[in-house]
C-alpha cells in the first residue's frame, strides 16, 4: 500500500511506484491519492499543449487551455483501468487532447463547413498540380470546383482565419487522426532530439513548399512575414488593391497547407 505521508523511496523504480499507486487507487478511490495522481501526471497536459502547437484564440488565455487539459486528465484518471495492461500515458493523451480541442472548437470563428471547403480547395490544388506539373491559378481552381471566382476568393479569405502551424500541417484530412508519441521524456522542459529533428525536417519541407508557390504569392508572404508590412503597405508596393493582396495571401496559405499535408 502507498504511504501518502511518506512517498516511496527515491530508489524505487518510477514504474513500480506508479503501479502501486494505481492498484491502491482502484481499490480505495482515495481523494488524497487521486490528487497525487493528478500532480504526478500534470506534465502530460503541458506535453499535449506543446504537441498541438496551436495559436490560442484571443478569447481563451493559456491558463484556460491548461484547465481544459486538466479536465481531460482528471477524467482519464477516474476512468483508467490499470488491469488492462495499457500505459496510462497512452490512455490519457487522447483524452487530454480531445478536452482541449473541444474547448477550442466551442470558440472557433471558423465553421466546420468552412473547414471542409478549405480541405476541398487544398485537395483540388494538389490534384491540378499533379496533372499539369505547375501551381494552378485561382481561376483554374474555381473552374475545377464549379464555383464563381468571387466565391472562390471568399472561401480563401474565410478559410485563412485558421492558423498555419507546422504541427497541424502534417495531419491528415481527417481531423480525428493524429500521431502522438506515448513515450514521454523525464525532462519535459528540454527539447527532445527527435522533436528537434522533426522540427528541422518540417522547416525544410516548408521551405521547399514556399519555393513551389507562384512568384507573386511568395512575394506577398515575404513582405508580410519577413518585412512585416501590412496588407495595405503591400498593396502599395505591388500596386494592387488591398483586397487583392488579401486574396493572394489567403490563397498562398491554402496552397502551402495542400503542399504540406499527406497525399489523399
What's this entry about, in short?
This protein is mostly helical. The chain has helices spanning 14-28, 31-41, 43-52, 62-79, 88-106, 112-132, 138-145, 149-159, 166-169, 193-212, 215-226, 231-238, 242-260.
* Percent of residues in beta strands: under 5%
Mean pLDDT: 77
- Helix fraction? 55-70%
Number of helices: 13
Report the CATH C-level class of the largest domain: Mainly Alpha
CATH topology of the largest domain: Butyryl-CoA Dehydrogenase, subunit A, domain 3
Round the Cα radius of gyration to an integer and report it: 23 Å
CATH architecture descriptor of the largest domain: Up-down Bundle
Major sheet, described briefly?
none
How many separate domains make up the residues?
Answer: 2
Tell me the number of strands: 0
Low-confidence stretches: 2-8, 161-188
What shape does the CA trace take?
elongated
Global structural class: mainly alpha
Give the H and E element order.
HHHHHHHHHHHHH
Distance between the termini: 52 Å
Key phrases:
264 residues; mainly alpha; Rna Polymerase Sigma Factor, Chain: A; Butyryl-CoA Dehydrogenase, subunit A, domain 3; 2 domains; 67% helix; 0% strand; disordered N terminus
